[in-house]
Amino acid sequence: MGKVVKRLFITLIVLIVIIVGAGWWFLSYIAPDKQLDMAHETIDIREKAASMVKRLKPELILTESDVNHLIKSHMNPNIAEGIRVDGADFKLEENRLLADLNITYQERIPAQIQAEYRLEWQEPNLVLIPETLAMKGINLPLRMLESLTIPLDLPTADLVTVQSVKFEANQIKVLFKLNFSLH
């Protein structure tokens, strides 16, 4: 009887070590690879538009950096129940936006997730519609993400209207139409 209890005790200890080791490995696997933050600068779209007028070129260029700052400034860090975004980095690929997000689950477990959004122009806003969500190659349910609406606060007047918005590799180009009427 003593040998059975001793073997059972050793087996239990080995199982506990394996489970703890697997848990530690999983947590280190999903942990963020790089440090990201939510720091952002204020992007003055109206100032960029004034610059456009000075150049006499009816287009406004939003660089990848501008888009990063705009999204971070309008993003709610609590993207789902128990999930907080600690840092983000966004890359433009034409009408797609690739997002690396460092998150914390239940205030305890740090992880890195990747999301892909489709970009749409719904005047006067840039809208990000979630397409995919994954953690280290493991697909996650899209219901964790919501569409994001980023207001651009473009100057609108009788003289200028948005003609079109083009999504390019590292920038978004807003083309304006000048409305001149001679009386």
Brief characterization of the structure:
The protein is α+β, with helices and mostly antiparallel strands. The chain contains 3 helices and 10 strands, in the order H-H-E-H-E-E-E-E-E-E-E-E-E.
Q: What characterizes the major β-sheet?
A: 7 strands, antiparallel
CATH class of the largest domain: Alpha Beta
Level-2 CATH architecture of the largest domain: Super Roll
| SSE string, helices as H and strands as E | HHEHEEEEEEEEE
Give me the oligomer status: single chain
| Beta-strand proportion | 35-45%
The gross shape turns out to be: rod-shaped
Please report the total strand number as a whole number.
10
Number of domains: 2
Distance between the termini: 107 Å
> What is the count of helical runs?
3
Mean pLDDT: 87
Query: Nearest-angstrom radius of gyration?
Result: 24 Å
Describe the structure.
Helices cover 28% and strands 42% of the residues. The chain is of the alpha+beta class and 183 residues long. It folds into two domains: 1-30; 45-178, Super Roll (Bactericidal permeability-increasing protein, domain 1), CATH 3.15.10. The strands form two sheets. Strands 2, 3, 4, 5, 6, 7 and 8 form a seven-stranded antiparallel beta sheet that branches. The mean pLDDT is 87.
